[in-house]
Amino acid sequence: MTTLAGGITAFDPDKDDLARDALTVLQPGFTGTTAPDWLLRRLGEGLASVGLFGRNIASPEQLAALTAQLRAERDDVLVAIDEEGGDVTRLEVRGGSSFPGNHALGAVDDVELTRAVARELGRRLAACGVNFNWAPSADVNSNPANPVIGVRSFGADPDLVARHTAAYVTGLQSAGVAACTKHFPGHGDTAVDSHHALPRIDVAADVLDARDLVPFRAAIAAGTRAVMSAHILVPALDPDRPATLSRGILTDLLRGELGYDGLIVTDGMEMRAIADTYGIEHGSVLAVAAGADAICVGGGLADEETVLRLRDALVAAVRSGELPAERLADAARRVRELAARTAAAGTDTAPDPEVGLRAARRALRMTGGASFTPLTEAPYVAAFSPVANIAVGDETPWGVAAELGRLLPGTETGSFTGETAGKEALAAAGERRVVAVVRDEHRHPWMAEALDILLAARPDTVVVEMGVPQAPARGALHLATHGAARVCGQAAAEVIAGV
Q: Which H helix or E strand runs over 108?
């Protein structure tokens, strides 16, 4: 063992089981569409998981080649991805998802449909060599002001969320892809995004038990292979530490009371809820000590130095007595067991390429349709665009303009935001019929005001709500898609154009 520049320690992985275990519990990311040499080398030294993001994916063929490259170094590697479908897609990050997200599936409330969507999504992931999905979100969207969950949730009713979470888990895993149910113990009742700060949920334990924990019980009963912790402070469960770092929440509650025996994964450790309060190195040590088995890092920090610093922090914590060696060894064992189990999983799932569009069409809710005459001439699509949260990202296109353009050639579009959005959209539209597209109107006063201005001047405007439909329906036709996936836009465009 020697110390290199920057305080990083060099280990002989063939002789140092502690360093190997520390590498095993990490789920890092990287940049580029091929695996860098450092990542392949660390796979040979004990790294058992790799996380993929939109930056790593150019096409299904390229993704399959990338995962084959990883497996040439370690045949049982867990290849993880954040592919929820709907608004959060990495597989189709540049074109929009072929699958509606959870909120649309909850609006339909057909568990067999949810299972079929998850199965087909899993089949496509497995075909590309991905075998671990950081999904589904089992959060009960009980707070309408939630800035990060919203349409990623099946809904606000715990029982509805529970039955669809279970269906999603079974569908995904039937395709040979391990599900990672998130964000335990529930991120739905927050008004703060944990990417930016530490949210706090101030409700009694019995409320949490009857609301937020219900879907996680269902996921555990359905056999979810993994559960992801949330970076949230829940004083009724632990007044001092966020869930990711809380032994009371991860070990006593999740393992003890709920009887969960699968893999526990942290949410991204570079998220500011942890990075700005504990730091990623100390935070990772505390997470493993609390009961987490795998440390997710790589959405923002995607380099070898981060991996080595976290490895060294875990090793140093064991040697200082802060982290019991048995706990790190147990975490590494759980990762290896899931890796071996997932590598051996097979599937004979038949393709169902249209299931996503069928689901999106069924999720569409129409107000004012009885008196609506479909458009026959190309409209102007005014997209009132809020800032996308980090989970969704700003790479993925959304709206109805592209799909309307295919049906009504000549369709034009513009994006507007802020206090002048309504007036600017009116000016840009000219004499064309207006289709106004919004996302969570109820959370954005400027957006509601823009619609007021637009509808006062042009009452024949069609309104498409692609977020959570909490605001009153208005417009000559109001369409609630329950999400902004590409297929949700297609379903709305078909109605507008009368196809």
A: helix 102-108
195 catalytic residue (yes or no): yes
200 DSSP assignment: B
Which residue is it, tokens 């409700």?
Answer: 203
Query: How do strand 9-10 and strand 2-3 relate by DSSP bridges?
Result: antiparallel
267, 293, 312, 440: which one is catalytic? 267
Q: What spatial distance separates the first Cα and last Cα of the chain, rounded to whole Å?
A: 68
Q: Are 83 and 90 in contact (CB under 8 A)?
A: yes
How far apart are alpha carbons 185 and 138 in whole angstroms?
9
Q: How many helices (H) and strands (E) are present in the chain, helices listed first?
A: 18, 16
Task: Tell me the pairing of strands 226-229 and 263-265.
Answer: parallel
Strands 462-465 and 9-10, by their bridges, are: unpaired
The answer to whether 131 touches 82, Cβ cutoff 8 Å, is no
- For this structure, is 478 an active site residue? no
Q: What is the pTM of this model?
A: 0.94
Nearest alpha-carbon partner for 19 in 34, 32, 38, 1: 1
Give the active site residue among 195, 231, 444, 482: 195
Each of the 499 residues of the chain gets a pLDDT tens digit; together they read 555 555 677 666 555 899 999 999 999 999 999 999 999 999 999 999 999 999 999 999 999 999 999 999 999 999 999 999 999 999 999 999 999 999 999 999 999 999 999 999 999 999 999 999 999 999 999 998 887 899 999 999 999 999 999 999 999 999 999 999 999 999 998 877 667 678 899 999 999 999 999 999 999 999 999 999 999 999 999 999 999 999 999 999 999 999 999 999 999 998 888 888 899 999 999 999 999 999 999 888 899 999 999 999 999 999 999 999 999 999 999 999 999 999 777 666 789 999 999 999 999 999 997 889 999 999 999 999 877 655 666 678 889 999 999 999 999 999 999 999 999 999 999 999 999 999 999 999 999 999 999 999 999 999 999 999 999 999 999 999 999 999 999 999 999 999 9
